[in-house]
Design brief:
436 residues, alpha+beta, 4 domains, six-stranded antiparallel sheet, 19 strands, flat
């Protein structure tokens, strides 16, 4: 395993003493001299001591004079080595270029445990797993689309970081790269389906199978069996395209007339699919740990869904659709709210004067809507037209959201009572069975 090249800073003992330097322990428990403070250009332009974008405190001393400093060297032993050195002897400090991607950890690659067969590095400090960073070799896949440990393609011994090294394709690599990409996207569809909480909602397996079929059809339409390996490639952004296939399958499932008047609404809203697809992104990061991979967004998924063309037989909603704002936490209430309002007639405006006793009580249905549960026959609310079973859709020209609770609605009522005007405006949805 060849790691990404480290940055080495050299400093004479005399210069180290002149600047008042002291040996200490870095975040990884290794000896550091803080030699990045000598990098004046970075300190002026970036505000803090840096070496090649690496902050002070993450370096580790490798050598003091003729003595090697190892992971087991204690701080007292390192100070003893320093005291026995001459002023012209050098302190060599290495700064890593790969760090834990966990923002709350940021330990260097010195603390990683590498698993080459899975192409994975695990930080022993926080347990965060990430793709193994390496230089001067590539990896190949077998016919199942998995990394084959026996198929490492090492570059020549004199290769340098950043060189383009031509490595012959292994003889066992029989699949074209666009087909391996198809296999990779196909696995991401399964990953999105597996992310939904257990037990799965009705129709999840049907949607997943349909999404796999759409991807397969799209692939073979793009790459016939007699196509050349250099012909059209699969779309970039595998996670987004997997999400598009899954979303198209969901739209068709919900629009199927065999499942009800307007189809069966599921938990697989665009926002939920987008959230789960984001975890399937093959993330790439620069040397500072900043993610350089584009995020999966609803707009990207909609565009990829349109790329499917006739493979999506359902109507694709506009980006301004309210359902695109639903999240995994609110989709259940939004669907419950839709089911309640589906049994109602047209919205009806009602008004309450601010003076007098309303004789009105409202409660939460638990299905994303607030409902009138009591109306006194001798009070203002009854005379103004309110009836038991009315759902509150708008209050003071503001939508009552599916996530609004009784406590939130009471606060809105108290605020409205203090505002100018002599009455309160409601827009209610009344069930068709309620004929009062």
């Amino acid at each position: 395993m060849i790691r990404l090249l480290d940055i080495i800073q050299k400093e004479k003992k005399g210069a180290f003493r002149a600047r008042g330097g002291q040996l200490s322990l870095n975040y990884d428990g290794r000896i550091t001299s803080g030699s990045a403070k000598l990098d004046v250009w970075n300190r002026i332009n970036q505000g803090d001591p840096y070496i090649g974008g690496t902050p002070v405190g993450l370096g580790r001393v490798q050598r003091i004079g003729e003595h090697n400093v190892t992971k087991k060297t204690s701080l007292d032993e390192a100070n003893a080595m320093l005291n026995n050195c001459q002023g012209a002897d050098e302190i060599h400090e290495t700064y890593a270029t790969n760090f834990c991607k966990n923002e709350n950890c940021r330990r260097s690659a010195d603390t990683f445990v590498n698993d080459e067969s899975r192409n994975q590095s695990t930080c022993v400090g926080c347990g965060f797993a990430q793709i193994m960073a390496s230089a001067k070799f590539s990896r190949s896949m077998n016919d199942q689309g998995d990394v084959d440990r026996s198929q490492y393609n090492h570059g020549p011994a004199n290769a340098k970081l950043g060189d383009t090294v031509g490595c012959p394709r292994p003889s066992s690599h029989t699949k074209p790269y666009h087909e391996l990409n198809y296999i990779r996207i196909d696995k991401k569809i399964s990953g999105i389906a597996d992310a939904f909480p257990y037990p799965p909602f009705a129709g999840l397996k049907t949607i997943e199978r349909s999404a796999h079929d759409k991807l397969k059809t799209f692939y073979y339409n793009l790459h016939p069996e007699d196509a050349d390996d250099n012909d059209l490639k699969m779309p970039h952004g595998g996670a987004a395209f997997a999400a598009a296939c899954f979303y198209a399958a969901t739209l068709e499932f919900e629009a199927n007339p065999c499942r009800g008047i307007n189809g069966t609404k599921t938990q697989a809203t665009l926002a939920v699919i987008c959230e789960y697809a984001q975890s399937e992104v093959d993330r790439k990061r620069d040397h500072r740990g900043i993610c350089t991979t584009r995020k999966v967004t609803p707009l990207v998924i909609l565009r990829r869904t349109q790329d499917l063309g006739d493979l999506c037989q359902a109507k694709i909603p506009a980006l301004t659709s309210q359902s695109l704002l639903w999240t995994s936490d609110t989709s259940a209430k939004e669907h419950g709210r839709m089911a309640l309002f589906k049994e109602c007639g047209a919205p009806k405006p009602l008004y309450l004067p601010k003076k007098g006793e309303f004789g009105l009580q409202i409660e939460d249905t638990g299905q994303g809507a607030l409902v009138v549960c009591r109306v006194d026959n001798d009070k203002i609310a009854y005379r103004q037209g309110f009836r038991v079973g009315d759902y509150i859709l708008f209050f003071q020209a503001e939508l009552v959201k599916a996530t609004d609770t009784i406590h939130i609605f009471d606060k809105k009522m108290k605020k409205a009572m203090k505002e100018t005007g002599v009455e309160l405006a409601f827009l209610i949805m009344r069930p068709c069975v309620n004929t009062e």
